Amino acid sequence: MPPLLSIDAVSKSFAAHRALAEVDLAVEAGEFIALLGPSGCGKTTLLRCIAGFLTPDAGRIRIEDDDITHAPPYRRPLNTVFQSYALFPHMSVADNVGYGPRRAGAGRREAQERANEALALVGLEEMGTRLPSALSGGQQQRVALARAIVNRPKLLLLDEPLSALDLKLRRRMQIELKHIQEKLGIAFIFVTHDQEEAMAMADRIVVMNAGRIEQTGTPEAIYRAPATRFVAEFVGEPNLIPLEPAGPGRARLALGGAELPAASGMRFAMARPEDIVLIDGSVPDDVATFPGTVEEVLAIGPLTTLFVRCGAAVLKVARLGMSGAELAPGSTVTLGLRPAALHLIAE
Ligand code: ATP
């Protein structure tokens, strides 16, 4: 079976600006994909090429065996949810959702039944008779979702659909959207520039930068084993410790002392803030230690981050809860990390 969606070497330029440069991506049926990257990296351009609102300059887009590169949007077995919900203000919620089936030729009763079914899926079965203006932002977003899934597309494209919501509602909708997606079994491609949103929802994350895909992988792979410095810095907070050569196949951490196996060309060892511990007592054999001075303490409740100077580097050290919050700037500490567990990055 071919993948649900295959994107092969798709490029798109606007005048002299190359918005997409030979992008390849395969999406399987039922997958939740997040397209993640900074503003202007080409996420929306890619989504618009898939939807058919833009035509690539080169490359091919297929749904299963069908080449849809030049097919008009309405011929594609997919639908799009935009940031602005664009509901019809004068139509009831049920009529908004039933509009799609009606246009596709369903009779009034069938359209109504399918609208009710879609509204039930998003938890709004009681709200069919209301006007969109009588709904909260989160409820309007769910109506937009119901409207997009009512014709059962194979693939749903979502362009920053939660960005208009406040943070708490956004977090709740992330969980809800994930559950709805699992229930539907429809593949989602979700554009976001919010790394936490991508981590929380996606089966796989596609990290984009300047029109190219930097890395595609599970949230865990992206977080633990970023392919490039860009990915390491875009997703989470990395400590990038420079490496110095220490003989064939080995490198030394520039913090002082500790050596580790490293292929030539590796420039940094990455430690996430939670990989570095404060040593207070005995030290296991495989842990390297470094003296440091606390420069800053950031305690936000569930997490405390210490900024600790070790020579030329300032390392971020994360601790659960308020542990470490009592350390005053200027305190001396001993940091520990396992060199063998560090992830190495070439560029
Ligand atoms: P954001 O998160 O800000 O929406 P994005 O990753 O979705 O960013 P795109 O909208 O895909 O970025 O834009 C990619 C690049 O192409 C940007 O530099 C943008 O200015 C440019 N671009 C997009 N659409 C057009 C257009 N119609 N005409 C000219 N340039 C465009």
Automatic annotation (TrEMBL):
Spans through the membrane: none
GO terms, biological process: putrescine transport
Boundaries of every ABC transporter domain copy: 5-235
GO CC terms: ATP-binding cassette (ABC) transporter complex
Single Gene Ontology MF annotation: ATP binding
Lipoprotein recorded as keyword: no
Pfam families: ABC_tran, TOBE_2
Family from the record: Belongs to the ABC transporter superfamily.
Xref: PANTHER family: SPERMIDINE/PUTRESCINE IMPORT ATP-BINDING PROTEIN POTA (PTHR42781), SPERMIDINE_PUTRESCINE IMPORT ATP-BINDING PROTEIN POTA (PTHR42781:SF4)
Annotated protein name in UniProt: Spermidine/putrescine transport system ATP-binding protein
Source organism of this protein record: Ancylobacter rudongensis
